[in-house]
Specification:
Purple Acid Phosphatase, chain A, domain 2; 8-stranded mixed sheet; 35% helix; globular
Length: 269
């Protein structure tokens, strides 16, 4: 049982896809519940309107996650939400404040050590979404089908719990890699952030947790997702950024002697 309190200055999460068959709702809930932070950024695709809008798909566990987020906002945490393509309907609310949650197309986050980061979901830099939205929608439903099918097959033939997502995850990883190469996503979003005068960009969208310094000198930080990786980007109180994975956080409580380098992807600028 994980009972450790996690304290950060800022937490960035994206691509929860609440309502879809692939989201790890319990892990999301536990991570948010055990996390204390001054800033919480919801970097898009929090609710999956594309495949999870049907009432029979929405569970109490999904509502609990929303309640936890609202509770943090009510308790003084500065919650900022920038919608993505799967929850794009919420972009109509940009500029509004909902239950102490600010909603906007993008945000600027300044770290404790003075770095200015552009925070945006990232779908506007993805040509497959901006130019071929119907194709992206079909792909989302295919992934949903593979997720349900994979879970059923593993249940019948003796699956491995979380491994029930393997069929869909493997297919999506290959497709995402192809489209990221095709759209040059990382290059486009990082260079654009640098041109706007930012020290880096925090994004989601491609479900690929990664921190890297581009040749232009700007930081590319992708929070990952809670479908395949269960990852988040966090800022410590000294301004240091880390990419954390829920499974590693849990394992660290079991094995306190595990070297820190095995727990996180670190990057100090």
């Amino acid at each position: 049982m994980f009972d450790h309190r996690l304290s950060y200055r800022a937490v960035f999460v994206s691509d929860l896809h609440l309502g879809s068959a692939a989201c790890h709702t319990e892990r999301i809930q536990r991570f948010l519940y055990h996390t204390e932070c001054e800033y919480l950024y919801l970097v898009g695709d929090i609710v999956d309107v594309w495949v999870g809008a049907q009432s029979w798909k929405w569970k109490q566990a999904h509502t609990n996650v929303i309640r936890t987020i609202l509770g943090k906002a009510k308790g003084g945490c500065q919650v900022r939400y920038t919608p993505g393509n799967h929850d794009g309907l919420c972009r109509k609310l940009c500029g509004a404040e909902l239950g102490n949650i600010l909603v906007d197309h993008m945000f600027v986050h300044t770290t404790a050590d003075g770095k200015r980061l552009l925070v945006v979901h990232g779908d506007i830099y993805d040509r497959t979404v901006t130019a071929f939205k119907p194709l992206a929608w079909v792909g989302a439903w295919c992934y949903e089908f593979l997720t349900v099918t994979g879970a059923w097959l593993n249940a019948v033939f003796g699956g491995r719990g979380a491994g029930s997502m393997d069929l869909a995850a493997r297919a999506k990883k290959r497709i995402k890699s192809f489209f990221e190469y095709f759209t040059n996503f990382q290059e486009r979003i990082t260079v654009d952030a640098q041109r706007q005068g930012f020290d880096g960009v925090v994004c989601g969208h491609v479900h690929g947790p990664l921190m890297a310094v581009h040749e232009c000198g700007a930081l590319y930080a992708n929070t990952g997702d809670w479908v395949s990786h269960c990852s988040a980007l966090v800022e410590h109180w000294d301004g240091r950024l880390e990419l954390v994975f829920w499974d590693d956080l849990v394992d660290a409580r079991v094995d306190e002697q595990r070297p820190p380098s095995a727990l996180y992807a670190r990057l100090d600028l």
